[in-house]
TrEMBL record:
Membrane-spanning intervals of the chain: 59-76
Biased composition (Basic and acidic residues): 247-256
Protein's name in the database: LPS export ABC transporter periplasmic protein LptC
InterPro entries: LipoPS_assembly_LptC-rel
Region of interest (Disordered), residue spans: 1-22, 233-256
Key word Transcription regulation present: no
Keywords linked to the UniProt accession: Membrane, Transmembrane, Transmembrane helix
Biological source species: Gluconobacter cerinus
Membrane recorded as keyword: yes
């Protein structure tokens, strides 16, 4: 039986080839050359350099690990600061300065009693280094005992160094104790928490209703005074008589 031509194309193993002895001789020569190569011992300078590298690695690797652990621990605070900066940049992008005008401006400060106040306005115009003209100003004031007051108007003038705010047109004051006051104008001393007006005022609150020609309000001292002739309607005037009033009435009947 004769082999077909396809059998001649089968792959053959190299280890059974005829020149296998030649390959072994080459490998043996390479092995002998490797054994005959002379390896010299490192000199003192090389040993010192290796020791310095080992010492540096001994301190550098733990230091790098400590830095990585610290960065992992501080990452939440870093992320918070980055988000704050993004929010500040976004808020600044909303502001538009044009010919001395600014939109959505915010002014913050502290009064003489370390209470916060904040003034916002839809449009502001800087008049010199101190005066700022406001359109639709709103003032939020922190008072003693965690109370607060909110006052707004159509126009205003804010003196930054003096910490005063003059409001005109549709002035509305609201306090968290339920007091509501409105009038055509009001002058505020933000540093002393004082609000005053010489124009008419209509006030409503837990005490009742009051119409007057002016008022003086010291929010830190808790003083509210109305000036000029006016009309006062107290809440207890429309209700049942008090105990003292009933005793006076009973005493008058007994005397009769």
């Amino acid at each position: 039986m004769t082999d077909s031509p396809k059998d001649d194309k089968r792959p053959k193993r190299d280890d059974f080839s005829g020149n296998r002895s030649e390959s072994l001789a080459k490998l043996d020569a390479l092995r002998r050359a490797a054994f005959q190569k002379v390896r010299t011992a490192p000199n003192p300078e090389e040993l010192a350099r290796r020791r310095s590298l080992l010492g540096f690695a001994k301190w550098a690797l733990p230091g790098l690990a400590l830095v990585l652990l610290s960065s992992i621990a501080a990452w939440p605070e870093i992320s918070h600061l980055v988000n704050q900066n993004r929010a500040a940049l976004k808020e600044m992008a909303r502001l538009r300065v044009e010919s001395g005008n600014m939109e959505n401006a915010v002014y913050r400060g502290l009064d003489a009693h370390n209470h916060l106040y904040m003034i916002t306005a839809r449009v502001t115009h800087q008049e010199g280094p101190d005066r700022v003209d406001l359109v639709d100003p709103v003032a939020d004031i922190e008072l003693a005992g965690n109370s607060w007051a909110h006052i707004k108007a159509d126009r205003g003038v804010y003196m930054q160094h003096e910490q005063t705010l003059n409001l005109d047109d549709n002035v509305v004051l609201y306090r968290d104790d339920g007091t509501l006051m409105n009038g055509p104008s009001a002058d505020m001393d933000l540093k002393q928490d004082v609000i005053a007006s010489r124009d008419w005022v209509h006030a409503e609150g837990p005490f009742g209703k009051q119409d007057a020609q002016g008022y003086f309000l010291d929010q830190h001292a808790g003083i509210m005074q109305f000036t000029g002739p006016g009309l006062t309607v107290r809440n207890d005037d429309n209700g049942p008589p008090s105990m003292a009033a009933r005793l006076r009435q009973e005493g008058a009947k007994t005397e009769k």
